[in-house]
């Protein structure tokens, strides 16, 4: 299980404390240093129980800095922990419904998941709501079963509605639902900073129209580290971002996975993520198995204004509806390095760009684009949908091969102005498969079969394609960024042998006997 696998003592953070200088200043001023309280929940009941401390009373004690029932008084930024016998708490409308947090709070399950959920057949309500004055940390917590219907006035956040900073650490937010118009962010609706570390957001959904962010909707910058966003969905029209949606802000994913999310409504872009006017940065991450099913729903894997990807794999994503471009990712501009774009597809009529679609100047370096499909149109691997006829796309040491389309299978160019000849492909040391009717490639472009092996776990955090024995891509590339490692990172050198290999990963010495970090040999 993810949480046990990530529970090494080195990942357990010490409790916060005043810095020495801050404490010294308080002493000099004659002011007492505030001492946060730790409140122990010893009952799994909701509401109040005589001489016992329930979660609802513990939150109230933390909010008011007053003793309530069997819970001691809070004091400033408090921590709520749970007795060993308390592992699951079911909230009911009769006892107050949502937990409202009004001051800084840390809910800490202490190395075991403590579940907080809504009674399944109860009146609809969200699980947790915070005010602007109340930054919240969820540590070793599972938030599940929240539901909002039309009568619920606030826009969304059936699991958590956070108006102050929210940190989700080794926790799970799952199976929450908004069933209403503009029901943003079924799992989490964040109005302030949102950080997920070693956590899972899964199985959440929005069903109403104009309800973006099945798993997460964020108004402020979003950060994922070693986290999974999986199996979330938006089902209404104009509801982008099955997994993640942001408004006007950036998203960062490091060693994370955005997988098996989807949108089903028309005009619902970005099955995995939707970052429409900002930048998504993917580092050592996977975007896989996401899809859009409605018409004019672009970006099966994701849709972003700018996508920066390094050490990452975009695979098995798809668009299924009419005029739905980009099975993998659609972005205005892309900066891709040391990455793999594989097995993505556009399957609907009048839909183009199987792997990656870009609109403006972009750069792709040391990257493999393989096995993507745009069956009924153009640009199976890469489509330059040029919003400006002077667009330049630079490819360096990249492998674009084995992609399928009705025309221009590897790289397609589409210029709505009709001046297609002015869209340029520049760069050097690339390997391109089938010839293009529209694109002209640099003179040193190789035309040969790189003998790629299937997408597999070849070491590192993401799946990749290894080069087969005798591949023409071996020692035929360059390393324009001076990369130390290939896509797999660590000890996998970016240049091994006479020169850099073309594509995302390097053929290593004695490659057949490579020992991975899990201790097993490669097949």
TrEMBL record:
<keyword id="KW-0732">Signal</keyword>
<protein>
    <recommendedName>
        <fullName>CSLREA domain-containing protein</fullName>
    </recommendedName>
</protein>
<dbReference type="InterPro" id="IPR011050">
    <property type="entry name" value="Pectin_lyase_fold/virulence"/>
</dbReference>
<dbReference type="InterPro" id="IPR059226">
    <property type="entry name" value="Choice_anch_Q_dom"/>
</dbReference>
<feature type="signal peptide">
    <location>
        <begin position="1"/>
        <end position="36"/>
    </location>
</feature>
């Amino acid at each position: 299980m993810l949480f046990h696998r990530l529970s090494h003592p080195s990942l357990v953070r010490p409790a916060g404390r005043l810095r020495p200088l801050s404490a010294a200043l308080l002493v000099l001023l004659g002011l007492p240093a505030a001492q946060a309280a730790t409140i122990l929940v010893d009952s799994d009941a909701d509401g109040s129980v005589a001489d016992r401390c329930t979660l609802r009373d513990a939150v109230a004690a933390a909010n008011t800095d007053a003793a309530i029932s069997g819970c001691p008084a809070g004091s400033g930024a408090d921590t709520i922990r749970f007795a060993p016998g308390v592992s699951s708490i079911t909230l009911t409308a009769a006892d107050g419904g949502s937990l409202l947090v009004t001051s800084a709070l840390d809910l800490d399950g202490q190395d075991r998941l403590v579940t907080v959920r809504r009674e399944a057949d109860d009146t609809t309500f969200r699980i947790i709501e915070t005010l602007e004055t109340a930054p919240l940390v969820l540590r070793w917590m599972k938030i599940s079963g929240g539901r909002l219907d039309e009568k619920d006035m606030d826009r969304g956040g059936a699991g958590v509605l956070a108006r102050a900073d929210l940190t989700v650490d080794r926790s799970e937010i799952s199976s929450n639902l908004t069933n209403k118009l503009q029901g943003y962010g079924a799992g989490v609706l964040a109005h302030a900073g949102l950080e997920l570390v070693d956590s899972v957001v899964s199985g959440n959904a929005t069903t109403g129209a104009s309800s973006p962010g099945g798993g997460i909707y964020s108004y402020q910058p979003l950060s994922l580290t070693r986290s999974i966003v999986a199996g979330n969905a938006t089902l209404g029209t104009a509801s982008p971002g099955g997994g993640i949606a942001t408004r006007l802000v950036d998203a960062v994913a490091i060693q994370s996975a955005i997988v098996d999310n989807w949108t089903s409504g028309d005009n619902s872009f970005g099955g995995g993520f939707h970052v429409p006017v900002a930048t998504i940065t993917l580092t050592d991450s996977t975007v896989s198995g996401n899809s859009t099913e409605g018409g004019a729903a672009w970006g099966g894997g994701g849709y972003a204004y700018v996508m920066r990807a390094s050490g990452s794999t975009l695979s098995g994503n798809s668009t299924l509806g009419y005029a739905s471009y980009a099975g993998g990712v659609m972005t205005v501009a892309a900066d891709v390095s040391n990455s793999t774009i594989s097995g993505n597809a556009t399957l609907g009529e009048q839909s183009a760009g199987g792997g990656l679609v870009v609109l403006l100047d972009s750069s792709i370096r040391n990257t493999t684009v393989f096995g993507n499909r745009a069956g009924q149109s153009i640009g199976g691997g890469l489509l330059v949908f040029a919003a400006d006829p002077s667009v330049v796309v630079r490819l360096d040491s990249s492998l674009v091969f084995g992609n399928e389309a009705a025309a221009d299978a590897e790289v397609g160019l589409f210029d709505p102005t009709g001046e297609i000849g002015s869209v340029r492909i520049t760069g050097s040391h690339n390997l391109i498969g089938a010839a293009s009717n529209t694109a002209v490639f640099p003179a040193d472009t190789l035309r040969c079969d790189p003998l790629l092996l299937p997408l597999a776990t070849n070491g590192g955090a993401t799946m990749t394609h290894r080069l087969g024995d005798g591949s023409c891509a071996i020692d035929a590339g360059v390393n324009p960024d001076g990369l130390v490692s290939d896509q797999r990172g660590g000890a996998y050198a970016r240049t091994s042998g006479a020169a850099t290999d073309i594509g995302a990963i390097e053929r290593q010495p004695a490659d057949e006997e490579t020992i991975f970090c899990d201790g097993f040999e490669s097949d």
